[in-house]
Design brief:
This protein is mainly α. The protein contains 6 helices and 4 strands. It has a two-stranded antiparallel ribbon with strand order 1-2.
Length: about 120
């Protein structure tokens, strides 16, 4: 956590140990989840291939992620996350899918997204 100190100096309050690589303030992502994990008797690779973000969000919620953490990680709102989780809304925008892949450390190819130059 970083906080601004008087006179514009930045002080580090707590540093993450090197053993916690991959830890994030909003939750932990294990890269193996996306290739070997499953949820509701369905491989996550299938959900990603179909761009079923609702299943991805429900999986992460089962791993302790809050809706606000999902929203912060993916650049969306809590209301949008909630609507996707409840299957009231489906993510179709390529830009939003890119933000989700980046924010949740999902390899873009698993979602059929192009890799940048």
């Amino acid at each position: 956590m970083i906080t601004k100190a008087p006179a514009g100096r930045v002080d580090v309050i707590a540093e993450m140990p090197l053993s916690d690589a991959g830890w994030r303030p909003h939750g932990h992502v294990d890269p193996r989840w996306w290739t070997v994990g499953s949820f509701e008797d369905r491989p996550l690779t299938a959900a990603l291939r179909q761009r079923d973000i609702g299943t991805v969000y429900r999986f992460l919620k089962s791993r302790g992620w809050s809706q606000s953490a999902l929203a912060a990680a993916t650049g969306t709102t809590e209301n949008q996350v909630r609507a996707v989780i409840r299957r009231h809304q489906r993510v179709m925008s390529y830009d939003v899918l890119e933000r989700i892949a980046t924010g949740l450390e999902i390899p873009r190819g698993l979602m059929g997204l192009a890799y940048g130059p």
